[in-house]
Amino acid sequence: MAGGRPRGFDVDEALDRAVEVFWRQGYEGTGISDLTRAMGINPPSLYGTFGNKEELFRKVLDRYTDGPARYIREAFEQPTARAVVERLLHGAVDGTTRPDCPPGCLTVQGGLASAPAAEGARDEMATRRRMGETFLRARLEQARIEGELPDDVDPEGLARYFATVHQGIAVQAAGGASREQLHQTVDLAMRVWPSRADA
Amino acid sequence: MAGGRPRGFDVDEALDRAVEVFWRQGYEGTGISDLTRAMGINPPSLYGTFGNKEELFRKVLDRYTDGPARYIREAFEQPTARAVVERLLHGAVDGTTRPDCPPGCLTVQGGLASAPAAEGARDEMATRRRMGETFLRARLEQARIEGELPDDVDPEGLARYFATVHQGIAVQAAGGASREQLHQTVDLAMRVWPSRADA
DNA sequence: GGCGTATTGTAGTGAGCGTTATAGATTCTG
DNA sequence: CAGAATCTATAACGCTCACTACAATACGCC
């Protein structure tokens, strides 16, 4: 086993550049030349290191989950279910309106419709969106068991509502809505949270 | 002025086919060959009749507004602002989950991120999304003046909230959510509607 | 130093993109 | 029927797409 010529670029740094390009232009709107230019490498380096466009995109999604979309995992560390949801939605607002990043959410931008050739990437994005909703639903079920939520609340329906708001925020941000405006929207959305008086 | 050879296809019928293709595959995911195949015509007929891809897409958006998205205009015919919003959101659920059409909303699918070349189409979709929100805001302002809404309500913020839910529904539908599930989501979202007791 | 190995830049692959030149077909006018 | 006008199909345009052969380069190991 020998050494071989060392890689001339930092993999994570290159991934960060790729995240931004896919984020701004979507999967289908991004060409390999856009990526190589932003990453500062040539096509053979890209293919040698990341496989192909779709595999690179999956690695970009992972990097996105651990980076700009870290707020999702962090939200679930909150002590109460209500705090989890508040943190999730307000975090989404901050994450989709960062001045140094494209507006919107990587897993939504261009992940709704696509040519058959991009089906793999589209399905991957849909799966990741569903995962967040599933986690939230489990957290709400736990909250009902623990008494934080009334018994007559439907955790699945409530989780879907908040997921809908979450994704709506991404569309709003992509359309140019401001951070302040969307934080206000989240405050409104939180009014749906069931109070014990409701039941 | 002479007659010339008559057109061998129905323009509106061809537009309907184009609507469905763009709806399913997005603007960038749709090739001219996809369109000509679905419309049953050849490229010169497409270009002679509709201009080019972007002009065709604008005509497709118009046709979509008068067809599958008719519910938006119709919602504003309701007598009260609350009924307008209810009709708007429940109409959106039905429109984005039609069994005979692609799931989701044409003005959202692929309208969030794109290559610079598709900027025109993207801007057009963003503008149309904003229009609905602006109309709704005006209707809510009117409702406050007429006393249907309390004075301390912010029509702009409330309109943005419902627009967020509206667009979130489109993402949910594109991801496979069912009609029943989303109608339930709308019922939850409507709980934000301000009651006079709130103020 | 020489060998094996991994990464590099250059250049190019076939396929598909949006678009159009060209010529034949079909209509109305005179 | 002659001629102008319009739409048609075939075929191709230049360009970009995702992807890769190839040969040169830079390392660890013996």
Automatic annotation (TrEMBL), chains A, B:
PROSITE patterns: HTH_TETR_2. The keyword DNA-binding applies. Keywords: DNA-binding, Transcription, Transcription regulation. Residues 8-68 form the HTH tetR-type domain. Residues 31-50 bind DNA. It holds the Pfam family TetR_C_13. One of its GO terms (molecular function) is DNA binding. This is Transcriptional regulator, TetR family. The lineage of its organism: Bacteria, Bacillati, Actinomycetota, Actinomycetes, Streptosporangiales.
